[in-house]
């Protein structure tokens, strides 16, 4: 395999580079998925996930599948046919949540904001007032399609005032910015392993509050997905250890190691590192005369969207970065296609050498 893989620095919207320790963890021998030694690794992984999610939530596990599997897990378990659901749409992943919720039979009320802006609390309140009896409100914490960081605290208070559950997409935020699950009373969140956790794509960490557990326990209809039904998944990750499906052993080794590394560095230091190098990159790009899509104050440190200057060809530029420097960055999606580049400094990649490398490569290829 090695001769098929060219040198790359993954500085796009994910996957990000995986630390060698995590790669080594993946190549350790398999254990049976009910082996007591593996069960210890699972327990440890749940504890580490609680640490990184900043929660005491009992139901905190890693679903098999990528971030989208986590998204489906949240919706299929919390939503029943006919439920009213409000979704903030300010980028591609809000749009995806709408699609998933509709497939669950929800009556979806979309609250839109321009791509590159945050979802406005007042607009959500209007929707809550107008529709009444809303089951849940969902937003994307770190919109990877635009680089926007959605403030959560006030929104969470508002949603709970109206008796709804508050759900957050934390695929790109977990391990990069604080998620504050317990402090902000977030009822359900899902993430991915391939962004700021610096593990390969394959698992989706999820966490659910007691309120969310109650909603699941009092469902009138069975969860439409067998594979993602948390009542069964809990019995495998929980004390019963009932076989449900074969756990992706090597991926769980990788996640465990990646989380362990965050614990060793401390979450606080990991978050400060992302903040520091994100700002360094953003300042450096502005010094090159480039402008950033997102207003200061709402920029993610781990994903920066930069406007493509007139007269620069998006595809030619990215091809040159890849061929000359081995650097991968992302292009814009949908309405932002050809208008922005997306640069990731996620997890292991949030470091000085990468900031210096990308700024030097940008300077070279732009001139
Ligand atoms: N949500 C957000 C914010 C994402 O960035 C992504 C992936 O980039 C997803 C959901 C979907 O995750 P995956 O591609 O791992 O299924």
From TrEMBL:
Coiled coil: none annotated. One of its GO terms (biological process) is glycine biosynthetic process, by transamination of glyoxylate. Residues 33-349 form the Aminotransferase class V domain. SUPFAM superfamilies: PLP-dependent transferases. Its cofactor is pyridoxal 5'-phosphate. Substrate binds at residue 342. Keywords: Aminotransferase, Pyridoxal phosphate, Transferase. The modification N6-(pyridoxal phosphate)lysine is found at residue 195. Belongs to the class-V pyridoxal-phosphate-dependent aminotransferase family. PANTHER family: ALANINE--GLYOXYLATE AMINOTRANSFERASE, AMINOTRANSFERASE CLASS V. This is Alanine--glyoxylate aminotransferase.
């Amino acid at each position: 395999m090695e001769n098929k893989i060219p040198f790359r620095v993954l500085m796009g919207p994910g996957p990000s580079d995986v630390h060698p320790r995590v790669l080594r963890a993946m190549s350790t021998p398999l254990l049976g998925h009910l082996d007591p030694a593996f069960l210890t690794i699972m327990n440890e992984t749940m504890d580490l996930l609680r640490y990184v999610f900043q929660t005491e939530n009992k139901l905190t596990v890693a679903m098999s599948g990528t971030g989208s599997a986590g998204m489906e897990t949240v919706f299929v378990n919390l939503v029943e046919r006919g439920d009213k659901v409000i979704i903030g749409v300010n980028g591609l992943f809000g749009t995806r949540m709408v699609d998933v919720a509709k497939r669950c039979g929800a009556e979806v009320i979309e609250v839109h904001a321009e791509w590159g802006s945050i979802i406005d609390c007042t607009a959500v309140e209007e929707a809550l007032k107008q529709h009444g009896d809303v089951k849940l409100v969902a937003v994307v914490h770190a919109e990877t399609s635009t680089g926007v960081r959605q403030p959560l605290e006030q929104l969470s208070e508002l949603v709970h005032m109206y008796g709804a559950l508050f759900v957050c997409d934390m695929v790109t935020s977990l391990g990069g910015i604080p998620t504050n699950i317990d402090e902000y009373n977030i009822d359900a969140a899902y993430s991915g392993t391939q962004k700021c956790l610096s593990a390969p794509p394959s698992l989706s960490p999820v966490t659910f509050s007691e309120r969310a557990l109650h909603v699941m326990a009092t469902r009138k209809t069975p969860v439409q997905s067998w594979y993602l039904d948390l009542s069964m998944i809990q019995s495998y990750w929980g004390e019963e250890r009932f076989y449900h499906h074969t756990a992706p052993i090597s991926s769980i080794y990788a996640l465990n190691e990646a989380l362990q590394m965050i614990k060793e560095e401390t979450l606080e230091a990991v978050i400060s590192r992302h903040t520091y190098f994100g700002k360094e990159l953003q300042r450096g790009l502005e010094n090159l005369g480039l402008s950033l899509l997102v207003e200061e104050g709402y920029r993610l440190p781990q994903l920066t969207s930069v406007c493509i200057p007139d007269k620069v060809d998006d595809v030619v530029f990215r091809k040159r970065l890849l061929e000359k420097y081995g650097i991968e960055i992302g292009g814009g999606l949908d309405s932002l296609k050809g208008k922005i580049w997306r640069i990731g400094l996620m997890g292991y990649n949030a470091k000085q050498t990468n900031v210096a490398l990308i700024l030097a490569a940008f300077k070279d290829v732009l001139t």
